[in-house]
């Protein structure tokens, strides 16, 4: 059965802890699936390579705690993930038939863009999990083309997940902001981006710096790019699963395609 594609805002590492708006949202996501995926392919803001790279063909997947200055409890997190070696040949074949050429780096550990939300969705991950890198030098058009090709994998039973945030300016994080509050510049950017998402405007989606406040919302674009393959993997309307803000400027909107 065809699987969806999700864009998940992964937020700050501590959002994976305890009971909060985002952990409850993640925990409820399996209810949206009509059948278990054959595999999961995740694209995270936190892994970039010089060419499109696949990870996950290993008996013992590892996670990395790729952040600094957070509470010790976060560095103690471990996550049980099933090895992807049995499903990897099938996934390689599906990627090739979709016209997607990858190199492999199977020892690469899953970063917190992957495990922070997914460990709350699947505390014991028994579905084969793979990660696809961002590519240094790619532009928005490249990620839209990738998404169009990934549509075929959805037909084959692969759940596509993009993990990032649709505003990401760490210099403007406000730890004193009330949950749900958004700075004016951030809200203005998201209003414009939501319009582009609703109309599926490829030029605007591929060039978020052209939107009001775009460079403020994304001084760098790695947290934005995972949205584009999700949108482009399906011609149907994109639907918001969650609309929420945290820390004053961090957009936690999440979408399904």
Automatic annotation (TrEMBL):
* Extradiol ring-cleavage dioxygenase class III enzyme subunit B domain residues: 15-195
A GO molecular function annotation here is: ferrous iron binding
CDD domains, alphabetized: 45_DOPA_Dioxygenase
Query: Which SUPFAM superfamilies did the record assign?
Result: LigB-like
**Name of a matching Pfam family:** LigB
Q: Which UniProt keywords apply?
A: Dioxygenase, Metal-binding, Oxidoreductase, Zinc
Report the domain of life of the source organism: Bacteria
Q: Does the keyword Signal apply?
A: no
Does DNA damage appear among the keywords?
no
Q: What cofactor does this chain's UniProt record say it requires? A: Zn(2+)
InterPro entries in the cross-refs = Extradiol_dOase_DODA, Xdiol_dOase_suB
Family indicated by similarity = Belongs to the DODA-type extradiol aromatic ring-opening dioxygenase family.
Which named protein is this? Answer: Dioxygenase
Q: Which organism is it from?
A: Mariprofundus erugo
Q: What is the lineage of its organism?
A: Bacteria, Pseudomonadati, Pseudomonadota, Candidatius Mariprofundia, Mariprofundales
């Amino acid at each position: 059965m065809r699987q969806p594609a999700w864009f998940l805002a992964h937020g700050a590492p501590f959002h994976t802890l305890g009971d909060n708006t985002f952990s409850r949202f993640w925990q409820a996501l399996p209810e949206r699936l009509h059948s278990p995926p054959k595999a999961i392919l995740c694209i995270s803001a936190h892994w970039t390579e010089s060419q499109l790279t696949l990870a996950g063909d290993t008996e013992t997947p590892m996670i990395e705690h790729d952040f600094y200055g957070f509470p010790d409890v976060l560095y103690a997190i471990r996550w049980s993930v099933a090895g992807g070696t049995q499903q990897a040949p099938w996934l390689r074949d599906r990627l090739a038939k979709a016209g997607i050429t990858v190199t492999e780096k199977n020892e690469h550990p899953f970063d917190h863009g992957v495990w922070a939300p997914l460990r709350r969705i699947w505390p014991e991950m028994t579905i084969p999990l793979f990660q696809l890198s961002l590519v240094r030098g790619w532009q928005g058009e490249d990620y839209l083309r990738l998404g169009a090709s990934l549509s075929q994998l959805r037909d084959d039973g692969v759940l596509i997940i993009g993990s990032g945030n649709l505003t990401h300016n760490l210099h403007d994080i406000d730890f004193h902001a009330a949950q749900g509050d958004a700075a004016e510049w951030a809200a203005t950017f998201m209003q414009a981006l939501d319009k582009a998402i609703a109309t599926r405007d490829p030029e605007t989606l591929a060039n978020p710096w052209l939107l009001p406040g775009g460079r403020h919302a994304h001084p760098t674009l790695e947290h934005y790019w995972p949205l584009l393959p999700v949108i482009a993997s399906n011609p149907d309307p994109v639907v918001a699963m969650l609309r929420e803000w945290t820390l004053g400027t961090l957009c936690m909107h999440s979408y399904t395609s």
